[in-house]
Amino acid sequence: MPSVVFDVVGTCFSYDNGAHALHARLGDKLAKYGIPSKLLFYSWITSTERDYSYLSQIKQYKPFLEIMSHTFTRILYQAGVPESDLEGFYTQEDLDYIVDGHRNLKPREGLAEMMQILRQGGFDVWCCSDANVERVKGYFDKAGVEMPLDRILSADMVKAGKPEPEVYKFARQKAGSDKPGEVSVFAASHAWDCAAAKAAGFNVAYTTTYEYDECVAVFGKMDLVVPDLVSLGKGIVDKWGKK
């Protein structure tokens, strides 16, 4: 049976709730310095991804949310909040509210339909995330989308963070897609994630729903590029499904 392994956070679920939580809590304060809260939030996410990956590479792996929770002051300073104003700029309650907002992600439009298309098309569907298993399971359950617990893979299981090769090797082994002749697809809305999966032997499907620009000159050409999740499901079945 062909298999498809999905990235979860950013691909199947949007970051927008976290951005909304930051704006609700600190938007007025940030506006005084000309800092858009949405831009700050996404800068915080990408800087956390960098630190998460770098710590993994030097074998000092730490969970994503742990890093995120301890680097907010840094991102405020880098965004332009003066050092003299950092103390007292936010409370622990503010931070907890924002991080909880990030935990409570909303499904992207078309998620349930995409999963149905893939399963009806004969694909065994998995997901592989930097988030822990319980968190990922909660996302799908709350969205009313089936994702069996034994089909959820976390980087925590191998104590390595994306985009380290160990994560993708682990995903291919668990999904049974490292066997000769088996079709294995990795799907994500992060170009770096797709590039790492391709290097590990996956066919890769990329949706521009999060990053918009494929950036071929940086990440190389993906095997499939589509604008949304429903198109992603249909494209995977059409390209790699059993004829």
UniProtKB/TrEMBL annotation:
Molecular function GO labels: phosphatase activity
InterPro entries attached to this UniProt entry: HAD-like_sf (IPR036412), HAD-SF_hydro_IA (IPR006439), HAD_sf (IPR023214), PGP-like_dom2 (IPR023198), S-2-haloacid_dehalogenase (IPR051540)
Keyword Nucleotide-binding attributed: no
SUPFAM superfamilies: HAD-like
Sections of the chain in a coiled coil: none
Keywords: Hydrolase
Signal sequence interval, chain numbering: none
Annotated protein name in UniProt: Haloacid dehalogenase
Native species: Papiliotrema laurentii
Top-level taxonomy: Eukaryota, Fungi, Dikarya, Basidiomycota, Agaricomycotina
